[in-house]
Every structure is written in C-alpha cells, then in structure tokens.
Amino acid sequence: MARLLPLAALGAALLLPAAAAPGESAAACHCYRDRTFDPERPGAADPYILATTRSSLLSAAYRVDKRTLVSTAMTGTAAEDLWVAYYAGSRTGLGAPHLLSLREERKGWPAALAGQKELDGPFAAALARGADGRALASLAVDEVLATRMGVAPAALRTLHDAGASPEERILASALAARLSVPTAPLVAQVRAGKATWGQVLRDCGLTPRELDGLVRGLVR
Description:
By secondary structure, this protein is mostly helical. The protein is globular. α3 crosses α4 and α8 crosses α9. It is built from 12 helices and no strands. The longest helix is centred in the N-terminal third of the chain and has 17 residues. About 12% of the residues have low confidence. The protein has one domain.
C-alpha cells in the first residue's frame, strides 16, 4: 500500500478517481473488534474509525451520551435513523425516542415526520420526495457540519464531489480543521484504494481513540 501524498501535494490528488466506500455503515461502533491501526491489515480498523467519528459528532452536537447511542443501536436501530431522530427532534421539540417509535409505527420517516413545519430546507424537500433514512441522515450530517463545525459550503461540495460518504465527510472535515489543509484528496485516495483511513490517521500523527476528542473540540 502506497504511503499518503505529502500534505503540500494534496491538491493534485483531487483528480484521482473515486471507488466504492471502504465499508458499509453499521448501527454502532461497539461491534468492531479492530480499533487500532495494524500495518499488516491496514484497512481493518476503517469501519470502526468511521463509525466512532460519526457517533462522536452526533453525541457532541445533541448532547447525548455515547452509551445511550450504543444501547439504542443494540436494539437494531440503524445509525442513519439515530441521526434523523436527533436532528428532527432538535427542531420539532419531540424526543428522539418518540420519533423512532413513530417511524416504526408509521413505516418510515416521511410518514413519521409529516406535518412538522419546523423542518424546512433540503431536509423537508427530501421528506416530501419520500426519502429514506440514509438520504435524510446525509442531509442532517451536512447541516450539522456546516452549523456546528463551521465547515464551508464549498468544502462540503468538494467532499461530495470526491465521493465521500457521510461518515467520511465528518472525518475529513475534522482532519481538515486539525491539519489546516483541504482533505478531499485524502478521501479520493481512500476511495481509489490507494490508502486506508487507518493509514491516514497514522500519517497525520493520530490514533483512532483521539478522534472523539478532536471532533468534540470542533463542535460549537
């Protein structure tokens, strides 16, 4: 596996082709056995790295303990549905557990959130189109990155153009703040199979366990 590009040369990597995401998202990070970077298995910790970063932002943005998120996920609730529930709950005044129950009862988010006028913008438009939890969660992540972490719209567009998943957008945005350089090229490298997120963290001088503090320190 090739080493990452030097930070000074990151801009040139924007033209690298995108590939499939390094792994499917899972309900919670508690189920991952590989939580540290192993040079012999450089991609083994990537699912955990992405999941724990996603959970850290959700926990920090909505002031919910990670243990609560894990216990809810253990009931079978998808991470995407947790994001939608806390995002919509913060705007409607309805609790996330109540909204999750409504989603189950009414067979989907569009029916569960019907008539909630506090929901507007792209999120409300997606609801009107009958979007599923994954699409709605992606919109929620983008808004939280913009409003709570100060990620510029242009930076988010660049990450989307690089093919970044919601989890990768969170991680890349946190690393961009830490490194003071655009990190879409890192996304492109990972998605092209030229690097792993474990390698990215190693080359940035970070360990997976430091991500929680990094993300929390950026939320305002």
